[in-house]
């Protein structure tokens, strides 16, 4: 018998690590699916412009209150749209980072994995 007594098999610690890695992979896939199906919205100008972004970073809608449309001040409308779009993207990024940090918190046995 080989030294250590694990003839033909994986040592218990390595087996546990493999199970833990598989569990984390499943959790990661679930988290990714949840994020991809989530909508992130942000409003600008007191609700005058609302942008909605999916978890895959695609715009699903932009809603503009007709009262904010002023042909004499197109720049203000452009600024509101940019603010709403960037805010929605930032929300999506923050939620993704938060979810990744939560997942990484369970990686005590795998430093530097992500």
Count the beta strands. 3
Separation of termini? 38 Å
> From the helix content, strand content and strand pairing, which structural class follows?
alpha+beta
Residue windows where pLDDT falls under 50 for at least 5 positions: none
- Walk across the major sheet and give the strand order: 1-2-3
Order of helices and strands: HEEEH
Helix percent reads 40-55%
Residue share in β-strands = 15-25%
Give a written overview of the molecule.
The two termini are 38 Å apart. This protein has a 3-stranded antiparallel beta sheet with strand order 1-2-3. It has 114 residues and is α+β, with helices and mostly antiparallel strands. The model has no long low-confidence stretch (mean pLDDT 84). Helix 1 (12-36) runs antiparallel to helix 2. The protein contains 2 helices and 3 strands.
What are the SSEs and their pairings?
Layout: H1 12-36, E1 39-44, E2 49-54, E3 59-64, H2 74-105
Antiparallel strand pairs: 1-2, 2-3
Please name the defining characteristics of this protein:
16% strand; rod-shaped; alpha+beta; 114 residues; 3-stranded antiparallel β-sheet; single chain; 50% helix
Short characterization:
The protein is 50% helix and 16% strand.
